[in-house]
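To illustrate the input format used throughout this study, we show a single complete record. The first block contains the structure-token representation of the backbone; no residue identities are included at this stage. The design step must infer an amino acid for every position from geometry alone.
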């Protein structure tokens, strides 16, 4: 194994929703509202949230990511023919502001920070929303900053966002790694010249069979430190 070295010239761009923060953290609240339909509801809600961001990005019809989330919630209620009150919907949206991090996140970030990597949160969410999430999860102090797609009014995987990240953090593409559980995000980063690690959070997850594949695959963020040590010279 290679000796661990300090990595002050390597920048890590961490996706937030689904990578650091568990977007299914609303399940407990959903279960109190709709019972055993909660898991399917949560999955559909997340899928529509992303679809709406993709569509708005292509249409150049930007709204904040929270609007995509709210509209996806309305869609999912209609899809499952579930009537939630305005108060219940507001409660779900409030819950989305303080979703929990995955269990592996904090120890992994601490280990990576000790290696000297420059670390940023990099998200479709607004800077304020991301800062609130990271603070609630107790991991905000581990990042050098937050870079948001809201700053240029579009969504991942628009290549402009990855270029914006490089400019905002004064990083070189060849020295920058995207860390994400979302295949579309990994592909978007690689297509823009960054390196990328895919966090395969579920055993059955499938990566898109495109010509652009992740440089590293880990099932747990705590494996990322050693995986990067094998790749970073």
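Output of the design step:
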């Amino acid at each position: 194994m290679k000796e661990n070295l300090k990595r002050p010239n390597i920048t890590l761009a961490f996706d937030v929703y689904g990578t650091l923060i568990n977007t299914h953290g609303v399940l407990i609240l959903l279960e109190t509202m709709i019972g055993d339909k909660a898991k399917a509801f949560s999955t559909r809600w997340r899928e529509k949230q992303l679809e709406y961001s993709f569509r708005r990005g292509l249409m150049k019809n930007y709204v904040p990511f929270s609007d995509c989330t709210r509209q996806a919630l309305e869609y999912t209620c209609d899809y499952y023919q579930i009537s939630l009150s305005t108060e219940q919907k507001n409660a779900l949206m409030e819950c989305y502001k303080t979703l929990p991090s995955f269990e592996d996140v904090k120890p992994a970030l601490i280990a990576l920070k000790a290696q000297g990597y420059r670390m940023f949160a990099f998200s479709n969410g607004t800077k304020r929303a991301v800062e609130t999430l990271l603070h609630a999860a107790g991991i905000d102090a581990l990042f050098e900053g937050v870079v948001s797609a809201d700053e240029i009014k579009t969504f991942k995987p628009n290549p402009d966002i990855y270029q914006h990240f490089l400019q905002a953090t004064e990083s070189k593409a060849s020295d920058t790694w995207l860390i994400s559980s979302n295949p579309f995000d990994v592909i978007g980063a690689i297509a823009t010249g960054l390196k990328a690690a895919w966090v395969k959070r579920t055993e059955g997850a499938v990566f898109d069979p495109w010509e652009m594949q992740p440089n590293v695959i880990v099932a747990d963020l705590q494996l990322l430190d050693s995986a990067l040590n094998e790749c970073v010279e």
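Structural context for interpreting the output: The mean pLDDT is 95. The longest helix spans residues 38-59.
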